[in-house]
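Late entry, written up from scratch paper. The run itself happened at the end of the previous shift, but nothing got recorded in the book at the time, so transcribing now.
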Amino acid sequence: MQPKKIKDDFGFGTQIRKSPYFDATIRWGAKGFSVYNHMYIPRDFGDPVQNFWNLVNDAILCDVAVERQVEINGPDSAEFVQLLTPRDLSGLAIGQCKYIIITNAQGGILNDPVLLRLEKNRFWISLADSDILLWAQGVAVNSGLEVTIHEPDVSPLQLQGPKSGKIMQKLFGENIIDLKYYWLRHLNLDGINLVVSRTGWSSELGYEIYLQDGSRGSELWDKIMLAGEEFNLNPGHTSSIRRIEGGMLSYHADMDINTNPFEVGMDRLINLDIETKFIGQDALRKIKANGIKRKQVGLIINCEALEGPNTTFWKITKNNKVVGKVTSAIYSPRLKKNIALAMVSLENSRIDTTLNVETSFGPKPALVVEKPFYDPKKKITASSTI
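Output as recorded:
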């Protein structure tokens, strides 16, 4: 696939930042953008269904520079990072990554980032859509810990799909095969310093490539696209279809500051007995003791194929009473079903419960089902076969 001539008719303002890959994505066909972490992100490279098939059959390259990094340095950096999250980080090795949640004093979820330990006293928090830089700097003020916190010049790309490993071998050599799931390496590509991790937001085999010099964004994008040409690599955007199939949560949609981790099944990310007193520890202990009143579930919505993802929260009713809301819904062309993530009252969360959803087509019946909807054991993403 050849790039298109850059367009100059997009009306972008200066108050929202452009990524280092912005010009490259337009040259390669980006048709629409949205805003995430105060930054433009490409959301449209054409047919979203074709983007899904490109992802699950071959590979796509996504500009996810909006996943801003919070860098934490200093002799107390490990202790400080533990202060932010209920996940036990005592075994986090240098070169390892972990999916974590960041909670406030009430136990509400502020962000669900990936944490990368680059050096003994150097961490990156790779963010979902909320201002954790400000939160971390505020927490540090009265922590009594010796840390420095800033946003570095770091901008990730996601190379995702079953052929992503072959493309990575072409770029970095055969040794990249040995990079384990949720681990990272410091690499260099033709003089471009990178951090590469075996992570991604796609539920497919994939890598994130962290550029550390924003002036070389277009150069890096084009090098990857050229290397991937023989493997049918396409420019793309994070797939709502695939992430909902995989039960992957989107901050501000499936959870927010008023959601606690137990409601969305994140019990495995919580250790209430960590020696370091993390923010929200007392609140989460109380929530666990008292039990939750609502729970996230999977739904199959029985109606004609949805034409796109929901853009509002859809009411869920039972016997004419509102019992919850659909947070993310999409039609899966692979499963040939309308699938959704929803938050419902605990008494309506049992598998095979029948509910009603106020969809864009009007009221429709829905069934509570197990999630994730596809590859529930995450064998695809964690596979060591490339």
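The chain has a mean pLDDT of 95.
(Scratch paper discarded after transcription.)
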